[in-house]
Design brief:
This protein is α/β, with parallel strands linked by helices. It folds into 2 domains: 118 residues, Indigoidine synthase domain (Indigoidine synthase fold, 3-Layer(aba) Sandwich), CATH 3.40.1790.10; 179 residues, Indigoidine synthase domain (Indigoidine synthase fold, 3-Layer(aba) Sandwich). 48% of the residues lie in helices and 14% in strands. Strands 1, 2, 3, 4, 5, 6, 7, 8, 9, 10 and 11 form an 11-stranded mixed beta sheet that branches. Helix 3 runs antiparallel to helix 4. The protein starts with a strand and ends with a helix.
Length: 300
């Protein structure tokens, strides 16, 4: 397809049926400040290599859907930061036709990974049903993508900027298996506990791969969500993080923040309110997910 551009290294790995792990770029452009965003992106790629897989950082550059970015391209996305358009499914036609740049969310990373033939994707947190969605109808396109696109997403759960209970209900309706890696409880990104149960607990990358292969072979539409708790030593006190989240949501409501701005606004606010601690936790949980995704891709 003329719109898709797979890097030579990723193409070769796919041809030789070696493991490949997709990575998103919204976390680079919108999720962390420069230069930590670029440093983290490079460390995540290295972690994937150390665990025997090839990293494919996904982004839209000059209208091309890139599966596999160079170090220069990652630097470019990190430096431009929030000037790069946060690209969801609805943005793809316009960005591609105009030859524009875009940072891919979970949604668009899944779309481009699937086009390239990549089955496993590691990230930090996914979008979901926002608190107050009964009136705002703010539900992330990530959940619809999980319902239709055959990619396994390894994350650290969802932040409680979202309504975690409604997010799980939505995923259940859409037939998306929600797996806890080594846990029965849905992790809440910065903390290991949310009080909500996952559908199934799985303890090994081998079994993650076997379950996902069964889903693919049966031709069941959609992906699978693997929630991997942040390592204990990097997790944050629940009171600290929940206070920051409540404050961020109050401020967003007061300012009337809505649409695609809501998630980046809340994430940036929470980070400001909790200082460097939340950034350090964020980096560690992404590395932890990269490790598990690479091991699982190797089993697939
Ligand atoms: N949640 C996080 N970190 C993130 C995101 C969400 O904890 O970086 C980003 C991801 O790219 C995700 C997107 O796909 O935000 C969801 O945005 P929205 O809620 O507007 O769908
Ligand atoms: Mn939204």
């Amino acid at each position: 397809m003329e719109y898709l551009s797979i890097s030579p290294e990723v193409q070769q790995a796919l041809d030789e049926r070696r493991p490949v792990v997709a990575l998103e770029s919204t976390i680079i452009s919108h999720g962390m400040p420069y230069p930590q965003n670029v440093e983290t992106a490079m460390r995540v790629e290295q972690t994937i290599r150390d665990n025997g897989a090839v990293p494919a950082t996904i982004a839209i550059i000059g209208g091309k859907l890139k599966a596999g970015c160079t170090a220069d391209e990652i630097e470019y996305l990190g430096r431009k930061g929030r000037e790069v358009i946060k690209a969801s499914r609805r943005d793809l036609p316009v960005l591609v036709a105009r030859g524009a740049d875009g940072a891919t969310t979970v949604t668009t990373t899944m779309i481009i990974a699937a086009m390239a033939g990549i089955k496993v994707f590691a990230t930090g947190g996914i979008g979901g049903v926002h608190r107050g969605a009964e009136t705002t109808m703010d539900i992330s396109a990530d959940l619809e993508e999980l319902a239709m696109t055959p990619v396994m997403v390894v994350c650290a759960g969802a932040k409680s900027i979202l309504d975690l209970g409604l997010t799980l209900e939505y995923l259940e309706t859409k037939g998306v298996p929600v797996i806890g890696y080594g846990t029965d409880e849905l992790p809440a990104f910065y903390t290991r506990h949310s009080g909500f149960k996952v559908d199934y607990r799985i303890d090994t990358p081998e079994e993650l791969a076997t379950v996902f292969r069964a889903k693919l072979e049966m031709g069941l539409r959609g992906g699978m969500l693997v929630t991997n708790p942040i390592p204990e030593e990097y997790s944050m006190p629940a009171e600290v993080i929940n206070r920051a989240i409540d404050q961020a949501i109050d401020e967003a409501n007061r300012l009337g923040v809505h649409g695609k701005e809501t998630t980046p606004f809340l994430l940036a606010k929470v980070k400001d309110l909790t200082g460097g601690d939340s950034l350090a936790a964020n980096i560690q949980l992404v590395l932890n997910n990269a490790r598990l995704a690479a091991q699982t891709a190797a089993c697939l």
